[in-house]
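Example A, followed by Example B.
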Amino acid sequence: MKEGAIKAADNEAVTPETEAPAKKKRLRLILMLSVPLIILAVGAYFYLTSGRYVATDNAYVQQDKVSVSAEVTGPIVEVAVKENQRVRKGDLLFRIDPRPYRIALEQAEAQIAAANVSVHKAQAETLGTREDISAAQANLAFAQTAFGRQAELLRRGFTTRARYDEALNAVQQAKERVAGARANAEVKQAALAAGPADSQPAVAAAVAARHKALLDLQRTEVRAPIDGYVSQTERLQLGNMAVQGLGMVTVVRSGDTWIEANYKETDLRNMAPGQPAEVKLDAYPSHKLKGHVASIGRGTGSEFSVLPAQNATGNWVKVTQRVPVRIAIDETPGRPLLAGLSAEVTVDTKEQPLPGARPAAAQRTASR
């Protein structure tokens, strides 16, 4: 009876009211032990990964862009493209009024004909000078023969001194005519170059002018230099004057896209080409792209600016410079990547670079 009463008393002592404080004590003990462990684990993680990931939000999508300008001047008479239209290399973009250039081509062809006439005339005159030389030489021979007779007659006393002097003067005049004919032949020959008529300087100059006129006529049709998308077509208006060298439209190359991330110079200590990178675009925040460091710029952004900073002055303030780093995209984006989109790039600097890639320190040493 006494043992049963003791067990009943023990069971009555262990009640829910007494179990609750015990559970709270155990939970408090677990929390007291786990919180330091979590803090220690987080601290160890940050300690081990400190400096490993280098990130920047000063990054933008870049694509090759070609500014297409007219190579001849004239009013636009035809526009063959629209904004954001896809074009192939060689597709017509716009056409400039070709009429003045057709007239210039016709004038150049007329110059070729005139040059050919002049060359043939000079060649005929050159041939004529040869006949003049032959005639002058024959006249000289006749005069010398007549002078010889008069000299013999004068020696025998059968002629006068005056007739002798006339024969001598005729010889001198015949010699001068021979010299004049030869000089004229040299002048005519100097106007012609050796070779056929097509190789003559006058004809070659006229042919070059024709080539120039034909090239200008072909340039009135402005075509796409690359495959891509047409942009900035506001200048392409019928009647608008296309000025030589002034950009009229831009073609953005398709299929060649990269990220230009401007990192602080202090972030480049462990960065090297080939290291993996993660790209997140502001336009598609839930879409991340994998890439790698393709190259590190050879100078800071301010160094290549239009007006570089002049630090050799008294008012100098040290500013952390930024260096452009090209990030290549390793996967198909799945979304259209437009030039100029903002991005955030994170580079894992602890990963080994691709085989053959030199570290940043070696690159800087080589550049010196």
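Example B, a separate protein, is given below in the same form.
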Amino acid sequence: MDVRNAQEARDFATNVREDYANELYDLHGVALRIRRAARLGHLSVQIHQDRPIDLRKTGAAAYLIETLLMAGYEAEWVEVRKHEHGPRGDPPREYLYEELLVQWHVRLHAGDQAKT
């Protein structure tokens, strides 16, 4: 990678984000997380990231969200703040990014509500 070529750096970062999203948003892995959370009585699970990077525009995220919505789940991005201490005593850095929240709570349809 050459410092004189910003497009090359952007492409490299995009590829890294796509690879990470493919690992994180693997359908089988997400299904296991949902099952574990549901067995504990939860109605949602947040897919926590080890890296504070933006995965919202990745193909893996889009595919997972589409699959979840078709199966009756809800999916939304929630803001996360992460503080990390820098190396060699550098001041801490704050990262702001979004993680995927998957929900399966019951919603009442307008026709199901009691009429008053």
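On Example B: The chain is about 40% helix and 20% strand.
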